[in-house]
Specification:
The structure is a single chain. With 428 residues, the chain is mainly alpha-helical. It folds into 2 domains: 346 residues, Growth Hormone, Chain: A, CATH 1.20.1250; 44 residues. Helix 9 packs parallel to helix 12. It is globular and about 55 Å long.
């Protein structure tokens, strides 16, 4: 006689989805907190392009760590890996508060380097947690994966809401910008503690308790190269615009100091909404060809943002930012939940790690490309001394500006020679 009862491991789906949501929230809550107080860092470090530099520091650490962890994935204890990651999130979040209190909210190069070091620690923690969680959830119910990624987006929405509230509460008080940023940071610490306390991970064994064999990473990647490219393209585009371009290059509007915060908040709201749309089966995109076409078509947002920033008003910019978030969340969940189907548990785990590796590679590439928006705005020589040196070397050539390729090469060689000589003089 067939037993019609629901297996125990399928019971409690609702509570499991809630746990996955909390774990996803804790995964990026601290990093999103750092992004949403970017107005404070712009005030504290006006010359360092903090919104761009912090993401540029974060991504190499995340990418390198995840590449190593993906290579040794089969030999690692995922539960310990995730717990270490959440613990690092907690300690790094605490370090942000300690650094601000220890320096009494003062700026300077030393403090900025400390913030960058904490950003790198966030990157290591993210690679450890996100790769491990996606790997484990890949061979469970697709709704668990969707819930985890919804939690990632919800962290951005919650931090944006907290930042708007704290900015409004402390705007007119003495040292209000710092108080608002610090108040939000304290909430980040408690959120990471909550996430780290409920993490768990099952073992990859079959019904007889034997270790399951799986395909190699290279074979899995080649069989899913379109999904890997999809997730890469999604985040190359997103990070080439968010948060750097939205924070620094959208001009001045009637919202004033609130403008960048509103744009980031709108992105986070629609990113979260986009991650819930695939729960409606009729609206979920599963065709591999259509997913690829959608990800490529999304690149049209680059010229759209450029011309809107140059000629459009804030309403159009808010609309584009909302669409950027909506498409980012929707396509991410569609790709991540579709890819692991048809594989064994360990293969799904490995594929989940590989897709997150492609995701972080896309993030890193997007962060690097984001600097291209600064061309024509004094970059790559934002510092007055370097601009002066550039002008001196040009005048040495008898020209105001180097007009040909050879002249430009000579100018840069002369600048490099002077910088090298100055460095040697200081060392000696």
């Amino acid at each position: 006689m067939v037993d019609d009862r629901i297996p125990k491991r399928l019971e409690g789906k609702g509570s499991t989805m809630l746990i996955c949501w909390v774990l996803g929230n804790g995964c990026l809550f601290s990093w999103n907190s750092m992004l949403t107080i970017v107005d404070y860092y712009v005030y504290l470090f006006p010359k360092y392009h903090s919104s761009r530099v912090l993401t540029l520091v974060y991504q190499p650490f995340a990418l390198t760590t995840l590449a190593i962890l993906s290579y040794y994935e089969a030999e690692m204890n995922t539960r310990k890996r995730n717990l270490i990651g959440y613990s690092l999130f907690f300690l790094s979040s605490l370090a942000v508060l300690v650094l601000d209190l220890a320096t009494s909210g003062k700026g300077g190069l030393g403090v900025f380097i400390g913030i960058c070091a904490i950003s790198g620690a966030f990157g290591i923690a993210d690679a450890s947690v996100q790769g491990g969680m996606v790997g484990d959830l890949s061979y469970m119910h697709p709704d668990f994966m969707q819930s985890f990624f919804a939690g990632l987006a919800a962290s951005g929405l919650l931090t944006s809401a907290l930042r708007l509230i704290t900015k409004a509460a402390f705007e007119n008080s003495k040292d209000g910008l710092r108080k608002g940023a610090t108040s939000e940071g304290s909430k980040t610490v408690s959120d990471d503690l909550a996430a780290g306390g409920i993490e768990a991970s099952p073992a990859h064994v079959d019904q007889f308790g034997k270790q399951l064999e799986r395909k190699g990473n290279k074979q899995l990647l080649m069989e899913n190269i379109d999904y890997a490219l999809d997730i890469f393209l999604i985040y190359v585009l997103t990070l080439s615009i968010f948060p750097g371009f939205l924070s620094e290059d959208t001009g001045s509007h009637s919202l004033g100091a609130w403008y960048a915060l509103v744009l980031i908040a709108m992105y986070n709201v629609w990113d979260l909404i986009g991650r819930y749309i695939p729960l409606i089966k009729l609206l979920k995109l599963e065709s591999r060809k259509l997913l690829m076409i959608s990800c490529i078509a999304r690149l049209a947002l680059v010229p759209a943002f450029y011309f809107t920033a140059k000629y459009g008003d804030q309403g159009w910019m808010i609309f584009l930012t909302s669409f950027l978030g909506l498409s980012n969340g929707y396509l991410t969940v569609c790709v991540i939940t579709a890819a692991p189907k048809g594989y064994k548990g360990p293969e799904q785990n490995a594929l989940g790690n590989l897709l997150v590796l492609c995701l972080i590679a896309g993030l890193f590439s997007g962060v690097v490309l984001d600097w291209l928006w600064l061309i024509g705005k004094g970059w790559p020589f934002p510092d007055e001394n370097l601009n002066l040196m550039f002008g001196v070397e040009c005048s040495a050539l008898g020209q105001r500006k180097p007009k040909t390729k050879n002249h430009r090469i000579l100018v840069f060689c002369l600048i490099y020679r002077n910088l090298h000589a100055e460095a040697v003089r200081i060392v000696l």
